[in-house]
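QA checklist item 7 of 12: single-chain prediction sanity check.
[x] sequence parsed
[x] length recorded as 154
[x] structure emitted
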Amino acid sequence: MDRIDSGTRVIAAPPETVYKALLDREALETWLPPEGMRGRIEQWDPRPGGGFRMILTYLDASAAPGKSSDATDVVEVGFADLDPPERVVQSAVFESEDPAFAGTMTMTWDLAVAGDGTEVTVTATDVPSGIGQADHEAGIASSLANLASFAETR
């Protein structure tokens, strides 16, 4: 599991606004699920050592079976490091009986000033082998587009 998946997008909002969207429960439910999914957070503890449990549901499960059930991906996310307003590091563990989805993936969200906006770079390390790289990077790009739409209207 030494593969690295990533994505970058410039968002027309200041780093403080983007950072806040990374640590707001309702905001995450809105923008984090990639296209074709919706999300619900069950537990929430936004501090280093805390985290959240998110249930991602496929709108059309026939096109992409879930990791946790036919229609869902359930993920336990821990906040490994919070460095406002520059970085959020998350550890993510999928609930799955399939060993191809086992292990802890690290998601690092780096924020840097880019003119009047923020360049957001997402880097995923230790990606489980069952997650296809092209699909994962498309999902990251979709979440970044959702984040842009969310943050740019604040």
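[x] summary fact logged: Residues 4-151 form a domain with the Alpha-D-Glucose-1,6-Bisphosphate; Chain A, domain 4 fold (CATH 3.30.530.20).
[ ] second reviewer sign-off
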